[in-house]
Amino acid sequence: MSSQRGSGPGRTTLTVLLPNFGGYPGDWRGLIDLAREAEDAGIDRVVIPDHVVIGRNTHEYAWGKFPVPPEAPWLEPLTVLTAMAAVTSTIRLSTGILIAPLRPAAYLAKTVATLDVLSGGRVDLGVGVGWQREEFEAEGLDFEARGALLTETLAACRALWRDAPASFHGRHVRFERIWCEPKPIQAGGPAIWFSGTLTPRNVERIAKLGDGWIPIMTATRDDVAAGTRTLRDALAAAGRDPAALRVRGSLDAVRGADRRPDLARTLAGAHDLAAAGATDVQLPLLAFVRAPEALPRFFGELGAAWRKVKAELPAKGASTS
Q1: C-alpha 17 chain-centroid distance
Q2: What are the pLDDT digits (tens) for 15-34?
Q3: Mapped to the 3 state alphabet, what secondary structure does 192-221 carry?
Q4: Secondary structure (DSSP) of 119-148
Q5: Structurally, what CATH architecture does the domain formed by 13-312 represent?
Q6: 5 pLDDT exceeds 70?
Q7: Do residues 97 and 195 touch, judged by C-beta distance below 8 A?
């Protein structure tokens, strides 16, 4: 892993998902301002989720109630992050989760490299296979082959970010002696965080191509700890540094006596996640605030509360902040 993508010791980082879906009252450009608010508050990373199209069967979403109806607007994440890159200078910019198989490999490699160059090397790529058959069918792709498509797409991106000229020969992705320029600022390309449960295929995928793991939202602390051990062993077996593995744990919103989410108690959960191996924790932003006009003030409160928690966390693992 490159030094640009982070390989030294550091404290656990904080990620906040910004809602690029469901509508932003008045002007979507207000969403871009939130990236600057998060940066000013000292948040380490913002994450933008992904759907290209949405079918009517949102009840098939396996991790609770789908957050919006199928007709709700959903902004494209790499475009949103490019706009955010223009108004920020230090905060890391990530997808989470980008359904990478929906994008042709060469096009994805070019788009991500462009964003990395324009942001000064601040991109992380959180990717997954997706869960909705309609998205794949809308693009003429085989839903059942989405795992293989994910692997080949990211392997091809790695080749295009690394080699000049680049060649790749897979079942679904093939090219011979082509150039994809400019290369990302981060040597070898941005850090890739693969999401999902640790099936043997996903473990192999992360060990060969990935820098990090994003467990499913319902993963427990014990799940995170067991998965981290599994992946460190897999990285070591692949000849890679197991200490460089990144893991993003999800903080559960903790309610106070008034039944409202308690920010300090929620952030305190970072201690247990860090002990389990998480190098990054993600806050459930919408559990605390939904009104856009309240977000700037909330980020100020979040920044102050996180600085206190972060100072108490031990230095560890790889950091990207």
Answers
A1: 9
A2: 999 999 987 666 888 889 99
A3: EEEECCCCHHHHHHHHHHCCEEECCCCCCH
A4: HTS-EEEEEE--S-HHHHHHTT--GGGHHH
A5: Alpha-Beta Barrel (3.20)
A6: no
A7: yes
